[in-house]
Design a protein that fits this description.
Blueprint lengths: L1 H19 L29 E10 L8 E11 L2 E6 L2 E2 L2 E2 L1 E13 L4 E12 L5 E12 L4 E12 L9 E13 L2 E10 L5 E13 L2 E12 L5 E11 L1
Antiparallel strand pairs: 1-2, 1-14, 2-3, 2-4, 3-6, 4-5, 6-7, 7-8, 8-9, 9-10, 10-11, 11-12, 12-13, 13-14
């Protein structure tokens, strides 16, 4: 049922995307993507763009050091409108089925700012519950080297759930271009609600080969009612 609903939503939005979201060719500012809170292709994606990537995260201390990893595929169905499918694992167990839709609305501030929206649909295989998240995205190119990406929205929303149970989602990342396609970044993630928490992850992005990039990072993560602990991660990206 969840997959059917998501498929219907994707078809409806993809049909509306060219009229509602797609615009004439625009020079969008280049804003890097955060390592942990992944985007569905960069803002201003062009029709036909295809990417596969996988993120792996693990605590670096404590008794529970379960590896969390997630392969995904991203495809731009139309200019400024992209779709992703993701399979989050906990160790060897497939924990969730996840789908994302992202639309770029346009630019302002003389082309220095780009903004859009992102929708996430998640099916938890253990509980059988579905949840959704909706975020507003705003990226700004401050200078030739400095840029930021901010995402704010509501997540973990379920049918019949009270507003007090839905969590606030915040991601803010600052990036500095080191040259030769190498980027230093600092990513901040926050989620309210009962299972929320906060994470701060410095990271480094670099090319490995033509159309192959890697993002590596290590920082601190603190979940609600738990102690802060170090966390490390890597994302490997292949574009086609």
């Amino acid at each position: 049922m969840f997959i059917r609903r998501i498929a219907v939503l994707a078809l409806a939005l993809s049909g509306a995307a060219p009229a509602a979201i797609a615009r004439e060719a625009v020079d969008y500012p280049h804003i890097p993507e955060p390592m942990v809170f992944d985007m569905v292709r960069p803002m201003g994606a062009r029709r036909g763009e295809l990417e596969v990537n996988a993120l792996a995260l693990s605590p670096l201390s404590g008794q529970e050091r379960a590896l969390e990893w997630a392969p995904e595929i991203e495809y731009a169905l139309a200019d400024n409108f992209a779709l992703e499918f993701e399979l989050p694992f906990e160790g060897a167990r497939l924990a969730e089925l996840k789908m994302g839709l992202q639309g770029t609305i346009g630019t302002f501030d003389q082309g220095r700012i780009v903004h859009g929206v992102q929708f996430l649909g998640i099916y938890d295989r253990e509980s059988g519950r579905t949840s959704q998240a909706l975020l507003y995205m705003l990226g700004r190119r401050h200078s030739e080297r400095l840029s930021t990406m901010s995402m704010v929205g509501v997540g973990d929303v379920r049918l019949g759930q009270s507003e007090s149970d839905a969590g606030l989602l915040v991601n803010h990342s600052t990036f500095y271009d080191l040259g030769r396609d190498r980027i230093a970044g600092l990513e901040f993630n926050y989620k309210s609600s009962r299972d929320g928490g906060v994470a701060l992850i410095p990271q480094f992005h670099a090319p490995l080969a033509p159309k192959v990039n890697v993002q590596v990072g290590a920082g601190v993560d603190r979940q609600r009612r738990e102690r802060a602990r170090p966390i490390g991660g890597v994302r490997l990206i292949k574009e086609f």
